[in-house]
Amino acid sequence: MQVQRVVLNSRPGKNGEPVPENFRLEAINLKPDLSDGEVLVRTIYLSVDPYMRCRMNEDTGADYLTPWQLSECVDGGGVGLVEASSCSTYIKGDVVTSFNWPWQTHAVMKGSGLQKVDPQMVDGHLSHFLGVVGITGLTALLGVREKGHVTKGANQTMVVSGAAGACGSLAGQIGRLDGCTRVVGICGTDEKCKALVEDLGFSASINYRHGDVSARLKESCPDGIDVYFDNVGGAISDAVMEQMNKGGNVILCGQISQYNKDVPYPPPLSEKMQEVLQNKNITRERFMVLNYMSKAEAALFELSQWVKSAQIKVLETVVNGIENMGVAFCSMMKGGNIGKQIVKVSE
After folding, report:
1. Tens digit of pLDDT for each residue in 11-22?
2. What is the C-alpha separation between 220 and 157, in angstroms, rounded?
3. C-alpha pair distances (Å), 108 with each of 78, 96, 114, 248, 256
4. Is 147 helix (H, G, I), strand (E, B) or coil?
């Protein structure tokens, strides 16, 4: 059986931006003979995400992430269909997902590394298992709940950076649903700003490429900032943290502005910013969703209910074809996506 797969062709330079040529499409022959416990899957959707930039380095800088190996098949979040099974847990036709799905059109996988999912949870939108009813949704919901300390009736203001991305677009909506009276999103295009306010119900949005972010924050957050969901790091985050109220909370989810640089994760703050946090007693804790998986089942159910009842709106940018994985990944790293960046591999 001939299948197509994507391998890591080269690594970006140490402080380099990834390019599509870092990936290579290959055709290989797959023997569909299954050993005990294995299944043959057809890939339907694959996910590209910012954390993958770290996996392109020889050293990911994170003990929970393994680097991708040169000339070997790349992997990440995926969802697909069981086409044959030698594993008692799965039958042909089951929809399954995994964090370590190979970037292949078909693959033989160990059943133990897969999770069966119910298409009814997402009203048949299988790509949502890689986003809102998957690890991205969990990161947004549990990040807000575990580190945001949002209190209904407390008149809190939340700011989200990377607000039109997969996680940020959900985090802002969850902040609003959980009781924030103002939710302000920061993103990089006027089109994204419009989507945040008109489609997702954000109170206001700021395009960081236009004008003074600090001045725009003052206008949008007249009572200061209580909760900051940080997806970007760098100068934008410094501007937000300077306007935070005493006792505020920073949810340190990602630092995409720093991922192409050779710095530790999370990158160290300047002395000035450390003083700001200390003087105002602001909590800034790294959030690792994998530490909260005991809460995942209930959280995924809640996310599913919110999507079905249209209390959460889902934005996706979908690219067709496994041959476009590298293009989709590099576009996402430059902010070319609105919402979750997905690649559709088959029907």
Report:
1. 997 678 999 999
2. 10
3. 14, 13, 11, 48, 33
4. helix
